[in-house]
Design a protein that fits this description.
rod-shaped, 0% strand
Length: 139
């Protein structure tokens, strides 16, 4: 027989962890004032303290994971936005170069990959939405 571990989603694991923390704190509150002032710490109190330390470390770990996922999502969005801005900027430069060639009476240079991408309505719509979203978040 094999035992497999399936990780929980972050919200579920955070909820379970907070419930465990709440249970530990309730047990500790119920035990307050039951021992003598200078008596050594009982084994069960020491075990609870160890559990509290472990659960607090796990809460910190979950928060670190939440922050890392948030940063990863932001970087993925930024990557897509930067690619979009790069394509738009490159096409703008190439359009300007083509306009200058026309002004000088030279033949138009062949369309670049960036210019062809912007001529595709589906690609243009996607890039335009990304560009607008990026612009909204920056202003």
């Amino acid at each position: 027989m094999s035992i497999s571990y399936q990780s929980l989603d972050l919200e579920t694991e955070s909820l379970i962890t907070s419930l465990i923390l709440q249970d530990i704190e309730e047990i500790q509150d119920a035990q307050k004032g039951k021992g003598r002032a200078h008596a050594p710490i009982a084994d069960d109190q020491l075990a609870l303290q160890d559990q509290l330390t472990a659960i607090m470390a796990h809460i910190t770990l979950l928060e670190d994971i939440r922050i890392a996922k948030s940063l990863d999502d932001a970087l993925r969005l930024d990557e897509h936005c930067l690619q979009t801005l790069s394509i738009v900027n490159q096409a703008k430069i190439e359009d300007h170069d083509a306009a200058l060639a026309l002004q000088r009476g030279e033949p138009l240079p062949p369309r670049s990959a960036s210019q062809r991408l912007l001529e595709d309505p589906a690609v243009f719509a996607s890039l335009f939405v990304t560009y607008l979203l990026y612009d909204v978040f920056l202003t």
